[in-house]
Amino acid sequence: MTHAPEPDEDALDLVSAPKPVHYAEQALLGALLLNPARLADTEPLIAQHFDSHTHAALFTAIRTLPPPDPADHAKDTAWLNTVLEHAHPHAPGLNASYLHHLIQFCPQPKHAAAYAQMIRADNARRILRGHAERLASTATDPGLPNPAAATLDKADDISRVLDTLSEQFAPHPGSLPRTALPADVPRQADEEDLDEERLLLATATAYPAEVQQMRWLTEADFLLPLHAALWQSITALVHRSDMVDPVTVLGEAQHRGLLTDSLTPKDLMALVSTPAGSPEYWGEEILKRALLARAQTVAARITAYTDDPANTPHQLITGSRRALADLNALRTRWNRATTPAPAPVGRPSTRAAQPPRATSPLLQPALPASRAHR
User: Fold this and answer.
1) Separation of alpha carbons 354 and 99, rounded Å
2) Which residues face 260 on adjacent strands?
3) CA-to-CA separations, 135 to 60, 111, 121, 150, 216, in angstroms, rounded
4) Is residue 228 a contact partner of residue 220, using CB atoms and an 8 Å limit?
5) Which of 1, 15, 14 has the alpha carbon at shortest distance from 102?
6) Model confidence over 186-229: pLDDT tens digits?
7) Is the backbone peptide bond immediately before 44 cis, with ω within 30 degrees of 0?
């Protein structure tokens, strides 16, 4: 239903169908204008918690000016006029009629603390949503020199916000949100990404000793299910201390049922026979893409929680922390991958330098379509 503005609201920055917090702000300001002593009940509310700029300017004026004598305030509007004069430069649409409307609108001035709590809760929702948007934006920014580090920094910002909010809003029973979550953000697999996965498989086959140290990479990190299955084949050989070369990888793949009409033995051996660079380098690239994709999914989940008005602040906190836990699991593996380790004897580490990219058609057999992550 469209909101019909009050007679003197025309100049204010109201929108159609105001949210509940709009009425909480009106009720609180009405309580404070009627009884300024109620300001003590609003702590720790500040102007930045308000959704309406006009209401924030009015609250600032009320907090800034000395409170009037109760007896004088009951007889005249001198203090109200002073409040209006103080707030008007910051909110030109504000007028005396609106102040009187706020006073008449307030149901119970003694409920000022409850109104303030509603305002703070809505502000927590907006703050958390803003941080989720920044997390998603950072995870998809192609111009960042170190996107993984920047993305994890944004995730840390959310953790700190949640810690602060948890101190301000007490837990309560039934604190798990019931919001229907969106599907995981699909991972787009372009040919360059798939080529990196092929190069990992080839270099891992050529240098299996390095694969032993790459337990931080899992099949879930791959874009293509076939590549994930081949990675499992190679790591299985390595962890059994079996001999690893294109033929033995072929044998393991055969036992796992990976050979099809579109992936012949010749195709598979070609796929793992042209190494370039080091397994660690390509593994980190694959893990980085998985981490950024997970960050996008986490941001989408937190945004969904904040968009659901049924969620209380504590439900927002609980749901957001659970979402971040998924990203933190990948963070742990990322930290293991990027922590410098001694290079195997006889093979210098090429982790820091990007190797040349192989583009041979032999590395691009007809493969199944890519899958969405998670």
Assistant:
1) 65
2) 263
3) 31, 37, 21, 9, 23
4) yes
5) 14
6) 777 789 999 999 999 999 999 999 999 999 999 999 999 999 99
7) yes
What SS3 class is residue 260?
strand
Q: How far is CA 97 from CA 2, 54, 100, 298, in A?
A: 22, 14, 5, 46
Residues 6+ apart with CB under 8 A from 24: 115, 118, 119, 122
Per the confidence metrics, is the pTM higher than 0.85?
Answer: no
CB 280 within 8 A of CB 349: yes
Residue appearing with tokens 């996107």:
147
Chain segment 324-352, per-residue pLDDT in tens:
999 999 999 999 999 876 555 555 544 54
Residue type, 248: T
Which pair of structure tokens corresponds to residue 249? 């990888």
Token couple for 368? 């199944």
CA distances in angstroms from 201 to 204, 214, 224, 237, 307, listed in the order given: 5, 13, 12, 13, 42
Q: Kindly tell me the burial class for residue 1, based on how many C-beta atoms sit within 10 Å of its own C-beta (0-12, 13-18, 19 or more).
A: exposed
- Would you call 341 helix, strand, or coil by DSSP? coil
Please tell me the distance from the alpha carbon of residue 18 to that of residue 76, in angstroms, as a whole number: 32
Q: How many residues does the chain have?
A: 374
Supply the pLDDT for residue 331. 96
